[in-house]
Here is the input.
Amino acid sequence: MSKLNARIPEGPLAQKWTNYKDHQKLVNPSNKRKLDVIIVGTGLAGASAAASLGEMGFNVKNFTIQDSPRRAHSIAAQGGINAAKNYPNDGDSVFRLFYDTIKGGDYRAREANVHRLAEVSNLIIDQCVAQGVPFAREYGGLLDNRSFGGAQVSRTFYAKGQTGQQLLLGAYQALMRQVNLGTVTMHTRTELVDIVIVDGKARGIIARDLVTGELQRHFGHAVVLATGGYGNTFFLSTNAMGSNGSAAIKAYHKGAMFANPCMAQIHPTCIPVHGENQSKLTLMSESLRNDGRIWVPKKKEDAEAIRNGKLKPTQIAEENRDYYLERRYPAFGNLVPRDVASRAAKERCDAGFGVGATGLAVYLDFKSSIERLGQKTIEARYGNLFQMYEKIVDENPYETPMMIYPAIHYTMGGIWVDYELQTTIPGLFAAGEANFSDHGANRLGASALMQGLADGYFVLPYTIQNYLADDIAVKRMTTNEPEFTEAEKAVKTRFEKLMNIKGNRSVDSLHKELGLVMWDFVGMGRNKEGLQNAIDKIAAIKKEFWSNVRIPGNTTGMNIELEKASRLADFIEIGDLMARDALNRDESCGGHFREEYQTPEGEALRQDDKFAYVSCWEFKGNDVTPELHKEALVYESVKMVQRNYK
Amino acid sequence: MEKNINITLKVWRQNGAKAKGRFETYKVDNVSTGSSFLEMLDMLNEQLINENKEPVAFDHDCREGICGMCSLYINGRPHGPDDDVTTCQLHMRKFKDGQTITIEPWRSAAFPVIHDLIVDRRAFDKIIAAGGYVSVNTGGVPDANAIAIPKPDADEAMDSASCIGCGACVAACKNGSAMLFVSAKVSQLALLPQGRVEGARRAKAMVAKMDELGFGNCTNTGACEVECPKNISLSNIARLNREFLYAKLQD
Here is the structure.
């Protein structure tokens, strides 16, 4: 019997979620008060889940590593959120949003989950408007939409270039309302450091107070991880500095499976790397591709002259520019999905047409849009993004094209969950970017916000009840149970071990080393030899870390280097998993591009007969090869075809 | 063009909330003017770790000017010498070779120092918890297009909603007032029909909480608006005053 049961409800695809809701178990109001739910994370998924479960009457304990729940990295999402409202009357529907998401994910996502996502997308927009989220509007007073990659309709709702901020603040305010009402207890600057399992079920967490260093025990009838993605494995990414994969690794160590770890999204439009002291990469929203055109010089000598500072991009005549996305993909043009746009940029730069001092950049040019629409319109649409670019690069993008290059942005892989968002550990749930479920091998733009809020507002509040309904007789445990004591002891031992290494290398220097290995071998272009090489190199970094890392200070009080070291130890493990998974997957799909598997035109070539499954990795012990399990992907409503954006 | 500069830092060090703080002086050489201010602090910390000393603790996260976590008082200005940016977006090209830079935490009664340059800003969360929301539960709300909202109102609400909750307004104010922060949220929600319903109650509750938490009074010096990295306008404070007065008249 397989350990994986996706528990997809019976019935036709469009009826599954309705059927599920009609027949799931519920918890009555007086019992809800007796049930504790731990939610780790306060991003879109965590805050919306905590607010909703609090409103329903559950006793919620919510944790965040930041000083306030409003800081989570969802706040940095710029472009927008998708929904199948079809307000512009351009032919959109729930099925079309579902279909675009499955196709965009290169047929590696679970059909039933994605359909449910499309179904609840419209409710999210209603909810956010009711909360006072100031979405962009038309002069008639109704909501405005724009287009994003991978779709031929305009279904993206937005609030300037700050959509993530506004949606997160909506969820945060709903959450703070519950804090005020006493249904949610907020624990800020507190980090999950382990998950406590009692009789096979998740029953609590060990947390570390990041100010005092004190270890705490917290009981919950269920535990929800809404802890985001693991893109920072690469050191340089668009993720916030504190974003990490440690909660996912703790779950993995306790028996939850890690699904599709190699599926990482590389975003095509980020500000290029400037030097070796760079700490993170800044994204320029995909929405810019609505009005910006991507190009490199047609002639190699022009590209070289630009790199040497002898030519300016504005001096290159129109006929000497290669708008390569418009050339290669006439139907979608600059709005092809992210994986396609990223690879196309890499292809041009590798062929010697890249610009910027390093040659690792392409242009994103607004000249024709400014001529067509006027600078004022462009400023109204993207003003804050242009300002951000100018502050970082010191060039005015209204006058000279932006320079952009791909960077790690999002991880589609994550903790394996079933239809109910429950992991392979009963009572442990995962929501938002932390789970693997909806984006397959590539996420479409403006779908991360949609998924985070779908999970938190409209999925978990139903599915978690189906689990908790069987738990109403379970009394609150004291945290003196032996399982809590043992878990805390193990955490303490691990921290002491880290402190006692007393080596010579800073955490960041090791993290940068890991990041370079990941980018070179597990990045945009992967191959068998490189991945085998990466596994060896990561093992060497692991050894170096555990024998030579230096952490000043001690375990009591605030110790930022200890926090970073603990997270890096987990990133090293994730890096190894990513490389193993990429090596196993002998095909190209979405963001996973194996150079051995491509069409004559250089597009990703899937191997559906062998790899139409979710790779699920089970932890077997430190330095032991993890075991691979497979969840077969069965498509009943769509036909798997070669993705075509031409 | 980018070049490298050498600088001297005077940094506030404080080993915990109850410890006595002091300035320490450090030199950082070969800083690229293309680096951000926080990348320069990363360089300092790398240097300190290599000397087996404890690195300087400072709040930061997204490093793209939106999370509101970074919070330094640099040469006497919240978020430093550039306009309309957070500390993470401040770049070293704003400094000269050989310059001495003084770095302190936010100074305000309502934001106590926790460690080095890190302060506790949970007072802002408490103000939001007192009323900075529309009281709707998840589900059962009308269609998003059921109520038309004039575009100018929606745009103005968006401008007020741009506040990132960093606390620069409080740090810049000689009275340590949180009026710009409170008024931005009150304005955003008062401008939209969804938030209008609870307008009076919200204004009273948020102002009462602000007073209770030890923030000072507003004396209209306008320092908050000047230092706000997101250009939140003083007109929000005027609107809050109107809302508050109206609410009191109703009592």
